[in-house]
Predict the 3D structure of the following.
Amino acid sequence: MVPLPHLWLPILLAAVLVFMTSSLVHMVLKWHNSDYRKLPDEDAVLAVLRKDNAAPGQYLFPYCSDPKDFAKPEVRQRFMDNPKGLIYLKAPGLPGMGPQLGGWFILNLLVSFSVAYVVSRTMPPAPDYLHVFRVAGTVAFLAYATGNAPASIWMGKPWKVTLKEMADGLLYALVLAGTFGWLWPR
């Protein structure tokens, strides 16, 4: 068993390399740009949200707080006549990337630390590169890739988008696994 303090370098470097990899995916390759579409008559939707002073948060529409209400004909009709959706609202203002990038880096550190914990507790003494790579990569893939699927299963997020995010997760897992395999104490 490798003590976690001996793994500070692979934890930190893996987080940095995954952060850099994700930056390349999003800013250079830009393969997620097609994941978002403009609402039809966006100006009218924004006007309604602005008029009603909709607070930042998560909204489901049509809204029904109690499944028993589906027995009511008027509730059933609202669902039959309208699109269903989920929308996240943020506060007005220019988009700033600082807090999101900071949060993403902290998440990368948390994933790296968690992977280090699992691998350090499951590795035999003096493991080879491939053994560390396989275990670290599997755990990192679970952390980076599978968390996106529930939004497609339950919320209607397009599977095409989720599969692209899972591909990102595989790439991040490979980067993390390679870093851990390379820098794992022998």
Observations:
- The chain has a mean pLDDT of 95.
- The longest strand covers residues 57-61.
- Residues 102 and 108 are 10 Å apart (CA to CA).
- The longest helix spans residues 98-122.
